[in-house]
Amino acid sequence: MVWYFVYGIILTLAGSSFQAFGLCIWKLDSIAKQPNPITGTSELRETHATPLLPIPLPKHTPKKTFLCLDDKISWIWVAGLCIFAVGNVCDFVALGIAPLSAVTLLGSWSLVVSTFLAKILAHEIVSKYDIASIVFIVGGIVFTVLGSDHRPNEWPLPRLIKHYEEPKVIVLLVVLASIVAAGLFAIHRDFVQRKTRVSVNDPCVIARPGKTIRALYVIVGSVVGNFTALFGKAFAGLLVFTFSGQNQFNNPFVIVIILVFVVSLPLQIYLINASLAVNDILYHIPNFYVFWNIGNILTGAIFYEETAHFSGSNWAFYLVGVFLLFGGVLCTNIATAHKQQFTNSS
Q1: For residues 201 and 268, is the Cβ–Cβ distance under 8 A?
Q2: What does pTM read for this prediction?
Q3: Where are the domains of the chain?
Q4: Which helix (DSSP H) or strand (DSSP E) does residue 205 occupy?
């Protein structure tokens, strides 16, 4: 069991690195499809040119930001999908042999990787606040891992089925599903409203959503990611039991577990792409992983009972970790505001 935990850590670190790389590739593709900031036209959408750097705009240029409605799938996007998929496979295997909280918290290693990739590939500005956010978030990861209970906690199918019937689990799943449904409705309604106000001269151009909707993309995507992790761990665990000679696929309820996992995974990928199209990558990644980690901490505690044997020191480390994670979010938002001011004043 100890080696399983070590293998899970190695797979998680590798998977988070691949996912960060895939996210940066997707961001490059979304930048390539955005219109020219001076002319408002969308000649970049077909060229997949080098991402635009902040440049001085004419004095009378409107401060309005635009997005391109070009939805063509490019080879760049496909490459990002393949790399991101490799990372998800690593995480899926890790979920089957290591605790949910350990896998998801260590997955935030992608924050460190994405910071350097955003600078190298997307030419995004890395400020002192971005570095501070990484320090806070990594510190939060360390404290929450130290506070976690890593003793073996196996979940064969009979135990899973019985647990899904408990009121606290039902409430948890209903709350998460309600957040996703309400968020998707608000995002779709906002998109329809913005689409009705597209430019007459260039119907491919649409105004960028407001701050609240942009944040909602991140939140809804992270909650869908909680579904993916929750049911992915159950599915991966059943596979591990089955490969060891204990068949777990002898009950129709397995179909429900697989179905939720299969539906949530592509929906999460779609929402991540949608968020990257409207958000700075150094805003999306830290916020996504903090909300995702907090959600997985809660689902791990409620569903997989990973805090059932916590001592006082466990809770102390855990709470400090959560505090540091939110401190990282604050630094990220400050960094985003500073970069926006730099762009507007250029």
Answers
A1: no
A2: 0.71
A3: 2-345
A4: strand 205-207
